[in-house]
């Protein structure tokens, strides 16, 4: 009888130890393991994204023919006179009468020396030259205005 009682007591102590000590730690272990797996998957996906971005950047930098074509299409300096001539030509072809054209030039912001080092790769891709804003006052019919804006839109789409 005493050996049965002792065996039952050991079984109760083992059950209490399991539910009070081992099971909570096992749950913590599984939570930490899940976080580790999740972090590993996130790292792998981020490495894939970085590799894809690097391959796109490498292919973009290797396309010298496309870069040369864009450089030939864009003017070397501020070509305001040609732009005004195109605006007048579009307006005349559309049936509008140009009353005035205003031009305002805005220079590109200069990078400071501290940010020049951190944005060296970005500045090699995007080199802002500045902005030229045109303000046109014209008179004509609504249809003429629509035709002028469509021509202006297609002209600007060619430059993009």
What does this structure look like?
This protein has 6 helices and 2 strands. About 6% of the residues have low confidence. Strands 1-2 form a two-stranded antiparallel sheet. The relative contact order is 0.08. The chain is an alpha+beta fold and 160 residues long. The chain has 2 domains: 62 residues; 84 residues, 2-Layer Sandwich (Alpha-Beta Plaits). The chain is rod-shaped, with a radius of gyration of 35 Å. The longest helix is centred in the N-terminal third of the chain and has 61 residues.
Secondary-structure blueprint:
Elements: H1 2-62, H2 64-73, H3 80-94, E1 97-107, H4 113-118, H5 120-125, E2 130-139, H6 142-159
Antiparallel strand pairs: 1-2
Oligomeric state, counting identical vs distinct chains? single chain
Major beta sheet, specifics? 2 strands, antiparallel
Number of helices: 6
Strand content: 5-15%
The rounded distance between the terminal residues' Cα atoms is 95 Å
CATH fold-level topology of the largest domain: Alpha-Beta Plaits
Write down the overall geometry.
rod-shaped
CATH class of the largest domain: Alpha Beta
- Number of individual domains: 2
| Approximate helicity band | over 70%
The low-confidence parts are: 112-120
Summarize the structure.
This protein is of the alpha+beta class.
Task: Jot down its keywords.
160 residues; Alpha-Beta Plaits; 6 helices; 72% helix
